[in-house]
Amino acid sequence: MIIDSHIHISLNSLFTKKEWKNFTEDFKVSCLGKILRKYKSKGVLALRDGGDGIGASCLARRVAEQEGIIYKTPVFAVSKKDHYGKFLGKPVDGLEDFKNEFSVLKENKLDHLKIMLTGIVNFNKFGDVGDVAFTYEELEYMVKSAEDYGVPVMVHANGCKGVSIAIRAGVHTIEHGFLTSDKELYGMAEKGIIWVPTLSPLGNILDTEDENFKDQLTIIKKVYDIHAENIKKAYEMGVKIALGSDAGAYAVGHGTGIFDEIRHFENIGFDENTVMEMCSKNGREALKI
């Protein structure tokens, strides 16, 4: 089974967030069905969403069941107020806010808790991934809440500090993980944390030498090369790596993104059998199936 362990179905070419709220239920189902059937036609039969603030992934889970696709969603991602990530869900201002939003997530039967811990890679300033949004104590509390409810924790984290805090808190998977050090890689191996490195967003820009990023390609290439080396080191250390394309992100298509991810992994030196094991066996573990 081909599994894409990191997608965002709400980010696509069929509708915008603003348009979504004015659509009828039937039209929403039609749009989501079209996207899901594209995955199905290519043999991608299990998907893990990173959340959204409009209910698209929740509805997609229902549509996916009719299509015979396994679909896991956090409902919406939890971010910190005034930090990166509010477009994927609900920003919270402290733990009382989180408790309220977690109640909403439970009502909607979240499959995993998604937490936005850091920002993203800054293509204009090498090494910058934004602030770490939550304290260790806040993250630990959120992870414990998810564990008590019986769902895993999916954490968006980049940079040594953010990834280190996520490891200490005992999250289930770390998404992206750009610009980390050997210390964090060993930490993931030691704790059995699954890493979903998402090479495609940067790799696809580099492959096409995208004119939109012509002044940033040097930094993008530097970050990509460091990431590729870290992935190879992590594999040798015994880190479980699952493949997620970040489909919906710029230049990463739904249904095609996971094959981009497979290609990027093969291009950096992994053989086909190893890549497919990451995609299927480790993907199953990431999705808890």
Automatic annotation (TrEMBL):
Cross-referenced InterPro entries: Amidohydro-rel (IPR006680), Metal_Hydrolase (IPR032466), Metallo-dep_Hydrolase (IPR051781)
GO MF entry, a single one: hydrolase activity
Domain of life: Bacteria
The entry's keywords: Hydrolase
Coiled coil segments of this chain: none
Domain Amidohydrolase-related: 3-289
SUPFAM superfamilies: Metallo-dependent hydrolases (SSF51556)
Protein name: Amidohydrolase family protein
Organism: Clostridium luticellarii
Lineage, uppermost ranks: Bacteria, Bacillati, Bacillota, Clostridia, Eubacteriales
